Amino acid sequence: MKKWFALLMCLYLLFPLSACDRIEKTAASRGTNQSSNPLRIACIINGTLGDSSLFDSAHEGMKRLKDELRNAIDIDLIEMSYDDSIWESVFLDAAASNYDLLIVGTEQMGRLLEQYADQYPEKTFILFDASIQRDKGDFSNVYCMEFNLHEGAYLAGVLAASMSKSGKIACVGGADTLAVNDGMVGYIQGAKSVNSDIAVLSAFSGSFSDAEKASELAKMQFAAGADVSFNLAGPAGLGVFESAVLAGGKEAGITVLGSGVDQAEEFAENGQTDRAEITAASLLRRVDLALYDAVHAHLNGTLPRGVTRSVGLKEGYVSLVPNRAYPEVVPAQVQAAVDAAADAIVNGSVVVGSAYGVEPEALSSYRNAAAG
Fold first, then answer.
1. 33 in a domain, yes or no?
2. Which residues of the chain have pLDDT under 50?
3. Are residues 163 and 182 in the same domain?
């Protein structure tokens, strides 16, 4: 795991707009030396910043682009909030404006692209963390990136099963989306590769914002004997950590795996030591890096419009990052097992199953069977 962390470090301003101010320029893009014809970019998020996940990562990518390219680009970050009743109108306002490149993410925004992207053939659309049904239209102006979350989640499963003393581990997802299911499938497969008899308890909170519901689910899972839990619920997953602490935390031998950002570091910065010390690793989707590379490809004329690309461990866009508690709570032989699993996925000797292309009923049956 240490070498993967080192690799990620090597791989390595914008101000957000509210929905009501959505088509105004950011202060960062104003200036007396601005290029006469910059690339105009709208990064539209169907939520808000502060999610400690995809949207914050997208924001980091936009900030890096603006810092480096300065007057060559003009970026607006549009926060639509979690009120899905306004998403369509905000998206259409942006599409009808004079943006050259529009960036959106998640399955919900993919559905809007299926409806409207062909009506704006002069625009380029980038969709991250989802894809579209390309048989529904031409979509030669849409580039999609699906993150192979199942690959990083497989490593989380290897880690969780290796750490568990009870033979029961857990996972709490947010909304019942393909991306979350993809993570659950990988997590289960990774855990079963270590211990075929391990029970993997899984549940959905129903949204990425309901921390109380996620906490209730995690509380039941810990009460049922799970001693390791995996947060796939975005901001709602903060409830998982709350229940872990209430269930005894470090003294009770409970470990939690985060996602979205280095959650142990975030907890430590906020003074939440009781949460930081039980967070061994976090699963990251490097939306920042993926969007940074995609915008550069667009500028260079090499962006593969009309294509859906799957990216994961090999590309450096998905990873399981060790947190500050990792060296202390994870034995050396377990760290070596996680590293070996990562190498096996990259070289192709281990193929991790995915939720994409699988019917919902089959996914439900798979999750239920894994619970034992």
1. yes
2. 2-34
3. yes
The reply to whether 105 falls in a domain is: yes
CA distances from 61 to 77, 146, 231, 234, 264 (A): 11, 17, 23, 19, 21
pLDDT tens, 145-190? Answer: 999 999 999 999 999 999 999 999 999 999 999 889 999 999 999 9
Tell me, what's the pLDDT at 24? 35
CATH code of residue 307: 3.40.50.2300
Dist. CA 333–CA 264, nearest whole Å: 22
Say if residue 254 is in the same domain as residue 113.
Answer: no
Owning domain of residue 337: 149-278+325-370
Note the pTM of the prediction, 2 decimals.
0.81
What is residue 326's predicted lDDT score, i.e. its pLDDT?
87
The overall longest dimension of the chain from CA atoms, in Å, is 65
For 68, 179, 262, the CA distances from 65, given in Å and listed in that order, are: 5, 26, 22
- From edge to edge, which strands make up the β-sheet containing 228-232? 199-204, 168-173, 228-232, 255-259, 279-285, 318-322
Looking at the fold, whether 86 and 187 belong to one and the same domain comes out as no
- Rounded to whole angstroms, the Cα distance separating 62 from 57 reads 9
The pair of structure tokens assigned to 212 is 């109380």
Give the count of domains, the chain: 2
